[in-house]
Amino acid sequence: MSVIPDTYMDLLGAKPAFASLATVMKDGSPQVTPVWFDYAGGKIRVNTARGRVKARTLKPAARVALSILDPQNPYRYVQVRGRVVSATETGAAEHIDTLAKKYLGQDKYPFTQPGEVRVMYEIEPTSASGNG
C-alpha cells in the first residue's frame, strides 16, 4: 500500500514534474537539488553521476525529502519523505535514458560526459502529504 495519496499519483507518472530533492551533508547542513525522477514498484528512482554531491549524500538508509510540483499548477504539490533503499550502477545508464525520454523527449541522455559513471537510487516513501 502506497503512503502517497492517490490524488498525487499523476505527479509520479509520465507527467514531467521536477522534484526538489533534499539530502543532508556530512556536516549536517541541508542540500537541495532539482532532479528528474520516476516511480516504479512503489519507489521513487533518481539518477546521478559518481562524484556529484547527490552521489555523496544518497547512501543506503539516508533520509531524504522530495517536493514535487505540478508543472501545470505550481500551487499543487506533494511532499514525500523516505529512505534510500538501494544504490546501483547496474541499469543506471539505461535509467537516465528513460528519464531523458520523459523530460526531453530524447531517446538518449544528451549530457553524458566521457568516463561518467551513472548511479540509480531507489527511495522508499515513508510519509507523504500535499496541497491542491
Question: How would you describe this structure in keywords?
Answer:
single chain, 132 residues, alpha+beta, Pnp Oxidase, Chain A, 7-stranded antiparallel β-sheet, 7 strands, 17% helix, globular
Global morphology: globular
Uncertain stretches of 5 or more adjacent residues? none
Q: Give the terminus-to-terminus CA distance.
A: 22 Å
CATH homologous superfamily designation: Electron Transport, Fmn-binding Protein, Chain A
- Per CATH, the architecture is Roll
Number of helices: 3
The count of β-strands is 7
Write out the strand line-up for the largest beta sheet, numbering strands in chain order.
Answer: 2-1-5-6-7-4-3
Topology:
Layout: H1 9-12, E1 19-24, E2 30-35, E3 38-40, E4 43-49, H2 53-57, E5 63-70, E6 73-88, H3 92-104, E7 118-131
Antiparallel strand pairs: 1-2, 1-5, 3-4, 4-7, 5-6, 6-7
Question: Can you describe this structure in just a few lines?
Answer:
The protein has helices at residues 9-12, 53-57, 92-104, and strands at 19-24, 30-35, 38-40, 43-49, 63-70, 73-88, 118-131.
Description:
The protein is globular. 17% of the residues lie in helices and 45% in strands. Strands 2-1-5-6-7-4-3 form a 7-stranded antiparallel beta sheet. It contains 3 helices and 7 strands; from the N terminus they run H-E-E-E-E-H-E-E-H-E. The protein has a single domain, classed as Pnp Oxidase, Chain A (Roll), CATH 2.30.110. The chain is α+β, with helices and mostly antiparallel strands.
